[in-house]
Amino acid sequence: MKIKMYEVRNDELDSIKKYAQAYNIEVETSQNNLDSHTVQELNGVDGVSILGRSNITPEIVDALKQAGVHFLSTRTVGFNHIDLNYAKSAGLRVCNANYPPNGVAEFTVMLMLLALRKYKPAMWRQGVNDYSLNGLLGKELGTMTVGVIGTGKIGQAVIKILGGFGCKILAYDPYPSDTVKAMAEYVSLDTLLGSSDIITLHVPLTEESRALINADSISKMKKGVVIVNASRGELTDIEALTSGIETEQIGAVAMDVFANENGIYHQSRINDIIKNRQMAYLRQFPNVVLTQHMAFYTDINTDSMVRCGISGLVDMYEGRNCECEL
Ligand code: COI
Questions:
Q1: Whole-structure pTM over 0.85, yes or no?
Q2: Measured from the CA of 78, which atom of ligand 1 is nearest?
Q3: Which atom of ligand 1 is found nearest the CA of 74?
Q4: In the chain, where do the E strands start and end?
């Protein structure tokens, strides 16, 4: 079997070599995205693997099928960059990755702590020998009520960690989990919005969840709420978030993701004119922490993402059950 992996970073290469040997397959790698140009290069490839930057439109699906590719894996948990309905209707089988949730969960809790302890302005000051304390009075996570929206694997891992801090935990999910019931209280979305000091998002991006955090939902929140997002930027309406910061209805925002981050995040754009006005404006606030979509980025996860990306393709190709097939 031969597969081609796109969006490959150097830190993935050792794992790719290891799993190519373990599964006895040939792997070609490219740092490029899979797009209308690179899809033309495919020749004699049985399966293709991508990360989150390749946008799998109906045109790309058609081009893959035309090139004889019937299997696609995304080495990500999220799959909003793939037109899954079209892929299915065209007979392109797709799987995602089920890397462990702890890396993202730990990062999420770190974002909460950074926001609560005002670490962004503290770090600015430290860098210019300003060791003053005024304006940096923090809050303790253990005294907070944290609302977790989405209690899948990552939401559950966040809840588990938060349990150690002693916070009160509220949860919202249309499909409640018995494991979570032992650690958190399921409530309606409106109750969670109105009762939480910190709200963290762990839902996939779908048409239903797009702009879940908007002017209306923000108006239901407690004044001074902290909003944390390590899921997808489009879950928040950035204009509404910005107004919330300006009016001080929102006390802090800490986000690892941003709407329209594609083409910006995971690249050095140090000498470029970046055309994302919303990001540039929000970035300047002392109580807004933005990180470069790196919550997933740990040694354990990168290895697991490569393993899932390869093993999923091999399972589908060899007619075995692929537990990550979408
Ligand atoms: C995911 O796995 O869904 C991520 O957000 C990781 C990133 C490489 C796109």
A1: yes
A2: 3
A3: 2
A4: 2-5, 26-29, 47-50, 71-74, 93-95, 145-149, 168-172, 185-186, 198-201, 225-229, 250-255, 288-290
